[in-house]
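Quick start: read one record
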Amino acid sequence: MEIVELNRFIAIANARTLQSAAIKLHTTPGALSKSLKKLESSLGVLLFDRIGKQLVLNENGARLLPEAIKILDLTRNIESILGPEQNTFCCRISAPAILQYQWVTLIGSHASGIQMNYETDFEVAALDKLKRGLVDVALTTHLVKPYLTEELEVHSLGQLTLELAVGDTHPLAHKVNLTHEDLARFPFAVPEASPFCGEVRGIGCDGWPSANFNRDIKWVLNDYAALCELVRCGAAIAYLPDYMISAWQLTKLSVADEPRHNTEQLCLILRRSAPVWIKELVKTLTG
């Protein structure tokens, strides 16, 4: 059993076809088939069930996958310790786009000598990729806690708050002592899906206390860059992350009868077997 065979096994397990795995690894399906047969022969068991053109992990393969991921993590750790000092490491991070907006730059500023490869996924999918060895770190909210396993460790990163915002030219931009009656006079732009998990929750999922107050909804869209542009040009009111309000130079609204702000706790999640340099990066970011 060799490292290259385990690496190819993980790729096949995730891709589920030799063709897709071969594209990912820049090799041929034939080469992967030989590696898989060699690995299965050395272990004395089959690792996949052949269902049509797909290769689906059987019980043996499902048991091997997390152990193979640990071995590859250990291999990367040894390479970082014994390899050339000027080696550039690659850290793969999966996160929802709305979280990448702020943290790509902040993480990059602490990642000296590390190439950061980002993949855009909603948080449950990001966590699944982490479990399957496709990424090294998942950036999510605390809402993924029900999906955590013992093989993962969680580090608190801070929080974000969704707040009401308008552009500088909006009639409410410089008004004080706002009430919900003031807000009801102007159109809102709202999402209908959570920007974190992607679940469609309806047009009240942005934080508006819909049971208490009415509002005029003119735009329904899930792209937060588009939401920010509608707000920036003075066309709409919207709930936006505090860091996007600052980045787009928008104006926060303070409403006297607004009962709450939506605050989400953020975290970085990694495998316990992750290479030391990844753990050190996460520790630097989270304190």
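The domain at 1-87 is CATH 1.10.10.10 (Arc Repressor Mutant, subunit A).
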